Amino acid sequence: MTNTSLRDVSLLNVTNRRRFYAAPDQFDAEGSQVTLDREEAHHLRKVLRLAAGDEVCVFDGEGREFLCLVRDVARGEAETLDVLRPITPAQPESPLELRLAVALLKNEKLDWVVQKATELGVRRITPVTTKRADVRLRKDSNAQTRVIRLQRLALEASKQSGRARVPIIDAPLGFEALILNSSSSWEEKNLLFAERGGRGLAETFGEWTAAPLRITALVGPEGGWEDAEIERAREKGWTIITLGGRTLRAETAAVTIVALLQHLCGDLV
Questions:
Q1: Is 204 left (phi over 0), alpha (psi -120 to 50) or beta?
Q2: Are residues 66 and 102 in the same domain?
Q3: Are residues 115 and 216 part of one domain?
Q4: What pLDDT digit, counting tens, does each position of 220-238 carry?
Q5: Where in the sequence is the domain holding 54, given as residue range(s)?
Q6: pLDDT of residue 138
Q7: What is the CATH number of the domain that holds 226?
Q8: Of 64, 75, 96, 269, which residue is most buried, by most CB within 10 angstroms?
Q9: Does one domain contain both 184 and 207?
Q10: Could you tell me if 26 and 51 lie in one domain?
Q11: Considering just the CA atoms, what is the radius of gyration of the chain in Å?
């Protein structure tokens, strides 16, 4: 791909972009240069084999993307690029600020949920400890290791799907702490999805005066919610939603719910 072919980068399909990630603090104070870390620099040099004069796209994980120029392929661990100008991200962000709160699942299941939810446009993912959760984290170090892994998966999924924003991955949070620190209004809705005791999503959506700007969707563990948890959420103003008669695996339910909410209130058409 020549430099000329990249002049109108905003029109290119995400698959044609050579995209790299750099956190906001990797840009200099003037915003004229950006330094890629070791892993991204390795991908630039050894995998794509780019050379001085090549143009690439760099996104900062907070919604901004830039057209950058490879000045000189260095031999050190990092790589510094010239920032040419801001560009339109390959894919727009959903207008819905969707937070997925999902009961802790086994490694491969939660990994899959984070990857797919990121592709579908969630803004934040919060693992939740519940009474019937599949996983019990016995040490803070275990939780930290898990969060770091999930953050990396979210970054890779953002890069692959064309997003310039990387979802926030929270440290695991207790069920009680989550529902206590929540508010509800026409702009912000809190939905707990359960296999019983709730109303249909379409029915609930039809009663809203306008599509909310922010939604927290809480999805339970493989073993389901205990009655006390459902009632506790209801007491705190959460809306209980039941999807239907079929029993879904927790990871299937989480991704299905994200897709449905993005369709009803976001940009999935």
A1: alpha
A2: no
A3: yes
A4: 998 899 999 999 999 999 9
A5: 4-87
A6: 61
A7: 3.40.1280.10
A8: 96
A9: yes
A10: yes
A11: 21
Average pLDDT estimate for 204-217:
95
What confidence tier does 84 reach under pLDDT thresholds 50, 70, 90? very high
Alpha carbon distance 127, 147 (integer Å)? 9
**pLDDT (tens digit per residue) in 54-70:** 999 999 999 999 999 99
Looking at the fold, whether 53 and 150 belong to one and the same domain comes out as no
The pTM for the full model equals 0.89
> Are 35 and 76 members of one domain?
yes
- Residue 62, in any domain of the structure: yes
Lookup: tokens for 37: 């870390």
pLDDT at residue 106, rounded to an integer: 87
Q: What is the biggest distance separating any 2 CA atoms in the chain, rounded to whole angstroms? A: 62
Can you tell me the distance from the alpha carbon of 255 to that of 98, in angstroms, rounded to the nearest whole number?
A: 12
Q: What DSSP string runs through the chain?
A: --TGGGTTGGGS-GGG--EEE--GGGB-TTSSEEEE-HHHHHIIIIIS---TT-EEEEE-BBS-EEEEEE----SSS-EEEEEEEEE--SSPPPSSEEEEEEE---HHHHHHHHHHHHHTT-SEEEEEE-TT-S----SHHHHHHHHHHHHHHHHHHHHHHT-SBPPEEPPPEEHHHHHHT---SSSEEEEEE-SSS-B-HHHHHHH-SS--SEEEEEE--TT---HHHHHHHHHTTPEEE---SSPPPHHHHHHHHHHHHHHHHSS--
Same domain, 173 and 55: no
